[in-house]
Amino acid sequence: MSDNMLAYIFRIFWIVLLAFILVDSFCKSWNTENGKKERILSGGYGTFVGYDPVVLPIIVGIYLVLCIGISAAKKEDILLNTTSLIDMILFITIYFTILLILLPVFRRYYTAKTCAAIWVVPVVLYFQPNMLETFAVPPAVVFYVPENFLTILGGIWITGFAVIFAIQVISHLYFTKKLRENSRPVADASLSEQWDKMKKDMDIPLVVDIRYCSEVNTPLTIGMRMKNTTTYLPERGFTDEEAELIFAHELHHIRRRDTHMKFFLRFCCAFGWIHPLVWVAVRKAEDDLELSCDEIVLKDADKDKRRRYAELLLSIAGDSRGYSTCLSASAKSLRYRLRAALPVKNKRKGVLLLFLIMIVCGLCTGRLALSTNRGTLSELAGPDTAEISNADFQSGRYADPHGIKDVELLSQYLSDLQVERIYTGYENDSSEGGLTGEFATAKRSFVLSGNYLHITDIVSGETEKYYIRIAPDWEFVKSLQ
Predict the structure, then answer these.
(1) Going edge to edge, which strands form the sheet with 220-222?
(2) Which of 435, 444, 438, 340 is nearest to 393 (CA)?
(3) How far is residue 409's CA from residue 42's CA, in Å, rounded to a whole number?
(4) How far apart are CA 147 and CA 464, in angstroms?
(5) Which DSSP string corresponds to 362-380?
(6) Helix (H) or strand (E) holding 222
(7) What's the Cα-to-Cα distance from 260 to each of 196, 223, 225, 228, 229, rounded to whole Å?
(8) Which contacts (CB < 8 Å, 24+ apart) does range 201-210 have?
(9) What values do phi and psi take at 347, rounded to 5?
């Protein structure tokens, strides 16, 4: 079995495993929220789907450090990590755009929790991005950007990303400080008891403050660390039923780590800031977080309770800022939430949908190779490629290799090939057929298979990878035997 075949098998196995991780966590979260206590928040384990949403921002941060700092001495490493970053940016922007288009259909047939879970696919997909490089297969797309232009584009992107992300963080910290300074503890003992009882019933053993705040018009929860999570209530009275609805909504946000989800979504805004539809998609994703909490709060509610919930949403409509969740949304998204609060037909759970989306996304990502230079092989790889000492040609996987007799003509043919220098984790494999050999004036060997040429320094083991822009003339190569 060839190395390429093994890479495909392990890659598919890994993607299927990720799909099972996604649907398994979704089902466990679903069961817990519907009364089957499979997952609790104790020990930092919430009912979020997949992995904690802050995983992706951490992964991106690591790649940025590798690109800017640790690997600064090695151009190869910088461009390889840049390839991974570009792959993430393209995937997230395209994925969010497609979801934005399909969201009306998903909302019509699938539960709000399912729709909310679809947005976290990138977190599961990239929680170990090195696996995509370990099981690298031939790139599906060679993305050519001239090196000078890549530097300019990279500078523009990282500047925009840094500015937007910094504004988000500063705004969040300022908003948190403002809420704390203009709030007071809830003095109503019965309200505090109701809050503590509902926390206990939902298996949330954390100490979560509940406070009145004059700066908010709608109840909201804020706090990136579970130990400093606080729920703020507007300065007004609530009936017992209203308090129960508010507390159920916010406690589900807390158990799902939705403040982390808001951080992830806002991070995606900064990460894909150059694509305006990403901003729109993130707004829709934030609506799905609220809709999914509405859905579980109203799971067994009758028509009258749903009507009172809709009235509550109308009476305390407002906006949240920073990485916070809020009970009632602004007018732009409130219309849909009010319609969703009315009695509706049962919607699908969507386990198979999540599984298929994960499979398709896994097959589509990690297939990018970045190219920064174009030209003939002798121009890009050096003049020593104009002379080959020996070469063997293998016409197929099970065919015997045959030596090339006319190495001078082969040398001329290869040195004139139009190629692109690429950066990818894919390792060429000649066992399925191709050309192998060594150059005469340098200690370098080469492997030409399909449209990919790899040249390896025999002493250091470092490999340069090239993409052949026009498929090699294998009949001509075969005639040189």
Answers:
(1) 183-185, 209-213, 230-234, 220-222, 324-326
(2) 435
(3) 71
(4) 16
(5) HHHSS-EEEEEEEEEHHHH
(6) strand 220-222
(7) 23, 9, 9, 13, 11
(8) 202/251, 202/252, 202/255, 203/37, 203/40, 203/41, 203/42, 204/40, 204/41, 204/251, 204/254, 204/255, 205/40, 205/41, 205/42, 206/41, 206/254, 208/254, 209/185, 210/186
(9) -110, 165
DSSP character at residue 67:
I
> Looking up tokens 């002798």, which residue turns up?
378
Say which residue the tokens 């052949």 belong to. 468
| Other CB atoms within 10 A of residue 438 CB | 15
Instruction: Please give the C-alpha separations between residue 392 and each of 444, 446, 459, 481, in angstroms, as whole numbers.
Output: 15, 11, 21, 8
CB 325 within 8 A of CB 289: yes
**3-class DSSP state for residue 187?**
coil
Own/partner pairs, 192-197, CB within 8 angstroms, 24+ separation: 194/240, 194/243, 194/244, 194/247, 195/247
- Does the reported pTM lie above 0.85? yes
H helices of 256-386, in order, are 258-271, 276-297, 303-315, 331-340, 351-364, 377-381
Distances (CA, A) of 243 to 210, 250, 339, 376, 393: 12, 11, 22, 72, 77
Q: How far is CA 326 from CA 232, 318, 404, in A?
A: 9, 8, 71
Q: How many residues does the chain have?
A: 481
Sequence-separated (6 or more) residues with CB below 8 Å from residue 357: 118, 121
pLDDT tens per residue, the chain (481 residues)?
566 677 788 889 999 999 999 999 999 888 888 877 666 555 455 788 888 899 889 988 887 887 766 655 577 778 888 888 888 899 999 999 999 999 999 988 999 899 999 999 999 999 887 777 767 778 888 889 998 898 899 889 999 999 999 999 999 999 999 989 998 988 888 888 898 888 888 888 778 888 999 888 888 888 887 778 889 998 888 888 888 888 988 898 888 888 999 999 999 999 999 999 999 999 899 888 888 888 888 887 778 888 888 777 777 766 667 777 776 655 556 556 666 656 566 788 999 999 999 999 998 888 888 999 999 988 888 887 778 888 888 876 666 678 878 888 888 888 888 999 998 888 776 666 788 888 877 788 888 888 898 988 888 878 889 999 888 888 888 888 7
